[in-house]
Write a structure and sequence with these properties.
mainly alpha; Glycosyltransferase; 18 helices; binds (2R)-2,3-dihydroxypropanoic acid; 6-hairpin_glycosidase_sf; hydrolase; MGH1-like_GH
């Protein structure tokens, strides 16, 4: 046990940068990523509170004037990554950060619940409370940004306009949307496939779609209202919205502890109620027994089950009946004896690919979310299985970015994929073991 934790600490220390932030993985991801930072801070908090704080502080320092927080902060120049700042050109937006170059898209809003967990790990320590007080308004402003600019139907659910905003970058869920598009063939040099086996990464044609959506956003100077009008990709994501709801709840808990802040509390509480009701109404699919994505552009649910489908547990959204149906779906489709929990896409579906990025493999951050969500609903045995499987995968195959969900023989098969010495796999192992 101690040996595994020490190895995890080493991964985090090695990926920590002089600028006070941590890269997800050397070579493949050489900058600061938004939701990675949140999970990474949770790992550091168990052995180095200053680094945990610094991780969040550097991320929030890159917040835009309108409250937006970018998905990548390009702290340094690195040519090992494509597309870099020169492609994204986020400074087209009039309120972009003047201090940092970044992308013009965001990632799941985890920072609220990360602040709450940091305070918990630090045992409600006064110093950490001061830190929370110094950062919480930035997270609150970010939630206002999301509700005021990305809730096109006025029902408390916010859109994402790019698959990279979902965090589940090349999920088979998006295939239906790609079929509605016909982007030009871009000429560019991939960098990711020089670090990782191309069989484990998205295809060239998928990248054409990714770049094309960015180009459309650029044509409109990253204006949210125009993006909502013109982007071919406009989706309500159960994962993104569940993270927002859970972070909202965390802000409510933290502001209540801090005292005062009545106006903020009543804003957050009214959004909270509305968002949960809409999530249940719009994203739950009773035939599948799971939450699914909703394609706003084509006005329909995208009926596939993925690990994102179960993240509403973490947000406390499903009622008892939905919760039971979800557990059944999880066990039947994802939880067979020969499998580790939890594959990122329905293993019984023909689009499932056990090796390719978000098209099937197990990710430790989704497992962490699922572990806490299942415990919240009293499914402790299933939660324990998610935790045990996560630790086993790392113990068998190392601190990889993602893993095969099929149980193989660790002596003969290498089932760890993507980047190696991956920060959130290390950070969340530490948090799960404490
Ligand atoms: C990548 O480059 O695959 C990143 O995950 C995008 O955020």
């Amino acid at each position: 046990r101690e040996q595994l934790i020490n190895r995890a600490i080493k991964v985090l220390e090695d990926n920590y940068q002089p600028g006070g932030f941590t890269i997800p993985s050397e070579g493949l991801y050489p900058f600061q990523w938004k939701w990675d930072s949140g999970f990474i801070a949770l790992g550091f908090a168990h052995f180095d509170l200053e680094k945990a704080k610094s991780e969040i502080k550097t991320l929030l320092d890159a917040q835009w004037e309108n409250g937006f927080i970018p998905h990548i902060v390009f702290h340094t120049d690195s040519d090992s990554y494509f597309p870099g700042p020169d492609f994204h050109q986020s400074d087209l937006h009039p309120q972009a950060s003047e201090k940092y170059r970044s992308t013009g898209m965001t990632q799941p809003p985890v920072t609220g619940f990360v602040l709450e967990r940091l305070l918990e790990i630090a045992n409600e320590d006064g110093d950490m409370m001061e830190f929370v007080k110094s950062q919480i308004d930035k997270v609150y402003t970010n939630h206002i940004y999301l509700y005021e600019n990305r809730d096109v139907e006025g029902n408390g659910l916010v859109y994402i306009y790019h698959n990279w905003e979902s965090g589940t970058d090349n999920s088979p869920i998006w295939d239906d949307i790609w079929e509605t598009m016909d982007p030009p063939e871009y000429q560019f040099e991939r960098r990711d496939t020089s670090h990782v086996d191309p069989a484990q990464r998205p295809s060239k044609r998928e990248y054409d779609h990714y770049l094309y959506i960015i180009d459309i956003a650029k044509q409109h100077n990253y204006d949210d209202a125009k993006i909502a009008e013109h982007s071919p990709f406009l989706v309500l994501d159960p994962l993104f919205n569940s993270m927002l709801i859970r972070s909202n709840e965390a802000l409510i808990n933290l502001y209540t502890k801090i005292g005062g802040n009545e106006e903020k509390l009543s804003y957050l509480k009214s959004k909270q109620e509305q968002s949960i009701a809409s999530l249940n109404e719009k994203l739950y699919n009773s035939t599948l027994g799971a939450y699914v994505h909703f394609d706003l552009r084509n006005n329909k649910q995208i009926p596939y089950v993925s690990s994102s489908s179960f993240t509403p547990f973490f947000a406390g959204a499903p009622d008892k009946e939905k919760a039971e149906a979800m557990v059944n779906t999880l066990q039947q489709k994802f939880g067979g004896e020969g499998r580790y929990l939890c594959a990122s896409f329905d293993p019984t579906h023909d689009r499932f690919n056990p090796r390719k990025y978000w098209r099937g493999p197990v990710w430790i951050n989704l497992n962490w979310i699922l572990f806490h969500g299942l415990n919240r609903y009293g499914y402790h045995d299933l939660a324990d299985r998610v935790k045990t499987d996560s630790l086993k995968l790392i113990e068998n195959y190392g601190f990889h970015e993602y893993f095969d969900s099929r149980k193989t023989n660790p002596d003969t098969d290498n089932s760890g994929y993507g980047g190696d010495n991956f920060s959130w796999s290390a950070a969340l192992l530490i948090d799960l073991m404490n």
